From TrEMBL:
It comes from Carnegiea gigantea. This is Xyloglucan endotransglucosylase/hydrolase. The active site is at E107, E111. InterPro entries: Beta-glucanase-like, Beta-glucanase/XTH, ConA-like_dom_sf, GH16_AS, XET_C, XTH. One of its GO terms (biological process) is cell wall biogenesis.
């Protein structure tokens, strides 16, 4: 058996075992950028390496850049391997998000706020439903996101939206998958909270200058002498129910792997890890901001022990 086959074989075995105890989303399948995505703006600020299997977004004092998925999706599993801008990245923001097009739009955001050399990045997440956002959570990361590729993914079904950070690494003769849920937005329809279910979303990513707010609330400005700033991407995985932009349901709803019981909620192990992120790495959580929200937002009441 070639070593590659051996890895695949081990991986399948591992997934079979792992699948029984912890329902981690299926392993993303890496494809070239052009399979699922197109540039959105500043096309000359995107660099293609390795036949488009890796791309780099470049920010300089003239412009940032971004890209988007060709298709729109209702539910699924989406992920990207990203290596953030290294060195002095203060003032820059690298974003990966899903968004629908309408005025009462739904959106799921990962925003990575850069920092001065050696100072920690912040990961800000937000969820908009029916046009309503203001659900920011901010955390420090337990790893340096500029050193190597990490995988950021969204699992979206009728029951929950889970934002997950993972690292895939090859040990001696085994493949390690380390999935850490960093945020879960449950369907709290019964509490009167809108949940994204009837508007397809596209995926977007961009790198831009946000030194009016990003680093230490805007105190640290982008040092243009350090430009160009470069974020690298691989993976480009999409496994979703593709729908036309104006569709309001997915043709195969309820028949895809992400709808199965195992993916409808986190298991104990995943909750433990989420709680670990909450207690050790949280900088800000709208759920606990009693100045801004004197009454606890309904969706925060569901898993109270997490907040
Ligand atoms: C940048 O570093 C400073 C100092 O350690 C820290 O207060 C801040 O939270 C860090 N991150 C951002 C994005 O401002």
């Amino acid at each position: 058996m070639g070593s590659e086959k051996w890895i695949v074989c081990c991986f399948v075995l591992l997934m079979a075992v792992g699948g029984a105890m912890a329902a981690a989303p299926k392993k993303p399948i890496d494809v070239p950028f052009g399979r699922n995505f197109v540039p959105t703006w500043a096309l000359d600020h995107i660099k293609y390496n390795d036949g488009g299997n890796e791309i780099q977004l470049v920010l300089d004092k003239y412009t940032g850049t971004g890209f988007q998925s060709k298709g729109s999706y209702l539910f699924g599993h989406f992920s990207m391997h990203i290596k953030m801008v290294p060195g002095d990245s203060a003032g820059t923001v690298t974003a990966f998000y899903l968004s629908s097009q309408n005025s009462e739009h739904d959106e799921i955001d990962f925003e990575f706020l850069g920092n001065r050399t050696g100072q920690p990045y912040i990961l800000q997440t937000n969820v908009f439903t029916g046009g309503k956002g203001d659900r920011e959570q901010r955390i420090y990361l337990w790893f340096d996101p500029t050193k190597e590729y990490h995988t950021y993914s969204v699992l979206w079904n009728m029951y929950q939206i889970a934002l997950i950070s993972s690292i895939f690494s090859l040990g001696k003769n085994r493949f390690f998958v380390d999935d850490i849920p960093i945020r879960v937005f449950k369907n709290c329809k019964d509490f009167g909270v809108r949940f994204p279910f009837n508007q397809p979303m596209k995926l977007y990513s961009s790198l831009w200058n946000a030194d009016d707010w990003a680093t230490r609330g805007g105190l640290e400005k982008t040092d243009w002498s350090k430009a160009p700033f470069v974020a690298s991407y691989k993976g480009f995985h999409i496994d979703g129910c593709e729908a036309s932009v104006n569709a309001n349901y997915c043709a195969t709803q309820g028949k895809r792997w992400w709808d199965q019981k195992a993916y409808q909620d986190l298991d104990h192990y995943q909750y433990r890890r989420l709680r670990w992120v909450r207690t050790k790495y949280t900088i800000y959580n709208y759920c606990t901001d009693r100045v801004r929200y004197p009454t606890i937002p309904p969706e925060c009441r569901r898993d109270r022990d997490l907040f």
